[in-house]
Amino acid sequence: MIQGFRQFLMRGNVIDLAVAVVIGAAFGKIVTAVVDGFINPLIAALFGQRDLSDVGTFTIHHAQFSLGVILDAILDFLIIAASVYFLIVVPVNRLMALRRRREVEEVEEAPPSEEVILLRDIRDLLARQNTPSS
């Protein structure tokens, strides 16, 4: 049972997933810092407020509502998703496409097998035999 658990942990995709989670969390902190430190204050300034939580606030029966908090969460999600897509997904997809193209080129450039060479020789001999001599 312990050996099975060890094999599970040592499988490549489990380790890859763990690395992805750690890198994703660190990358998320960077993007969140940019959003909280620059983008959200910039948008709040356009509305004349100090931060997005003050944008679109209203009170009903002493309950405080804030559309800015929702806007803040939506912006965080969209910016993080766009950053991950354009800084990680697109470059990795390009690298994978280049790798696949290189593999296809290597397969195409492979020398013909012995069977192919023999069949070509037979074809050439038959063509010479069927061609009238001049």
Short description:
This protein has 4 helices and 2 strands; from the N terminus they run ααββαα. With 134 residues, the chain is mostly helical.
3D architecture notes:
It is a single chain. It is elongated and about 105 Å long. It has helices at 2-10, 12-46, 67-108, 114-130; strands spanning 57-60, 63-66. With 134 residues, the chain is mainly α. 4% of the residues are buried. The mean pLDDT is 83. The chain is built from 4 helices and 2 strands; from the N terminus they run ααββαα. A hairpin with a 2-residue loop joins β1 (57-60) and β2. Strands 1-2 form a two-stranded antiparallel ribbon. It starts with a helix and ends with a helix.
Question: Could you give a short account of the major beta sheet?
Answer: 2 strands, antiparallel
Distance between the termini: 81 Å
Order of helices and strands: HHEEHH
**Annotation, overall tally of beta strands:** 2
**Helix residue percentage:** over 70%
Structural class: mainly alpha
Which consecutive residue ranges, at least 5 long each, have pLDDT under 50? none
Mean pLDDT: 83
Shape: elongated
Number of helices: 4
Question: Widest sheet: strand order?
Answer: 1-2
How big is the Rg? Answer: 31 Å
Q: DSSP strand (E) fraction?
A: 5-15%
